Amino acid sequence: MNKSYLPPYSPELNPAEHLWDEIREKWFPNLLFHDLNAVEDVLEDALRTLEKDPVRVSGLAGFEWVVNIPLNAI
Questions:
Q1: How many domains, the chain?
Q2: What's the confidence (pLDDT) of residue 62?
Q3: pLDDT grade, residue 29 (50/70/90)?
Q4: Quick check: is 16 in a domain?
C-alpha cells in the first residue's frame, strides 16, 4: 500500500481546520461574551448547525484524498 502523510505545519491541508475557520467566521465574528457558558452555547449551536448540513461540511472538509480513503484497508 502506498501511504502518504500530511506535511508538518500545513493546517490548510487539515479538514478540521477548515471547519474551525467556518465556525470562527460565521459564529464568532468580533463578539464579546460575558462568560464561558455563552461561548459554549454559541459553539454548540455552530456544531449542531453543521451536523445538520452534510453538504456544507463536505464542501469545507471533503478533500479528494479524504473522500477516497479506502475504509476497509489494513
A1: 1
A2: 82
A3: very high
A4: no
